[in-house]
Amino acid sequence: MDIFVQQLVNGLTLGAVYAIVALGYTMVYGIIQLINFAHGEVVMIGAMVAFTVINALAAGSMPPLVVVLIGTACAIPVCMLVGYAMERMAYRPLRSAPRLAPLITAIGVSIILQHLAMLVWSRNVMAFPQIIPLTTYGFAGATITSVQLTIVGLCFAMMAGLAALVYRTRLGTAMRATAQNPQVARLMGVDVNRVIAATFIIGAGLGAVAGVMIGTYYGVAQYTMGSVLGLKAFAAAVLGGIGNIPGAMVGGLLLGVVEALGAGYIGDLTDLCRYGLGPEESCADGGHFILFGSNYQDVFAFVVLILVLVFRPSGLLGERVGDRA
């Protein structure tokens, strides 16, 4: 039971970050039906920029929280600028092109951003300086850290803020109108280009914060970190229902919990087998089982993606994509 509660806490923490990144995918797809595979690299850039600023300020006398906030404040506009540049230069010229063209372009932009990051920050792993005091709390036999509580709280606050933006503001109304029918929205006075650019900018800003969170949680960042993270967030968006904002939130949380529970229980069984304490029938092929431990936790995200695509392609809450004229 202790393992279950601990892995549930870990899964909710990671799932909240997945949900924030998945929102960037689902917002863009809901409006222009584009899978922006470069979104994971935007998250990576946010983490790298924040780490650079935090490492530069860590030696000073400023409070740790202020240093992290300054790093995040620097990462957000940089990622927003990257998001706008992607939309303006790479995707907008191909808006009327066949579906395959923008998809291939998105993959190309992802590769370009990854290698630009490698040129700027090198191949080396950037380590987060230990400037934030870590406080632990006990709950039902599990341990919860102050960083985990902060990440979950901020993620839920950002989800609520985005939902309020989409469903309670003029910009959100314009976004939903554009998703429903861009031609009619344009006739009604909506600046479609501006709305689409705003969608990319908002998604990139959320990605920047998510990059800082996941970098702080694991303590490291590297130019390749966005690839797998982006694919997992895409899996979360598909799980909840691509184009569906509440679905992205639910999908991210579920995916994080599934991944953490799967890795935790398989890792636990692996350790028992390693020391000869596991069930005989489970440890008969011990060498194989030890290889399939928590180091392979990425497998669970993609197994979930395959199962959803096979049995429920529209996701748990269904796609929410406007009808085209």
Could you please describe the fold and organization of this structure?
With 325 residues, this protein is mostly helical. 73% of the residues lie in helices and 4% in strands. It has one domain. It contains 13 helices and four strands. The strands form two sheets. The protein has a two-stranded antiparallel sheet with strand order 1-4. Helix 2 (39-57) packs across helix 8.
| Extended strand count | 4
- In helices, the fraction of residues equals over 70%
Biggest sheet overview: 2 strands, antiparallel
SSE topology string: HHHHEEEHHHHEHHHHH
Count of domain modules: 1
User: How widely separated are the two ends?
Assistant: 53 Å
Principal-axes shape call: globular
- What is the mean predicted local confidence, pLDDT? 82
Query: What is the CA-atom radius of gyration, in angstroms?
Result: 21 Å
Structural class: mainly alpha
List the strand order in the largest sheet. 1-4
What is the tally of helical segments?
13
Low-pLDDT stretches are 268-294
The proportion of strand residues reads under 5%
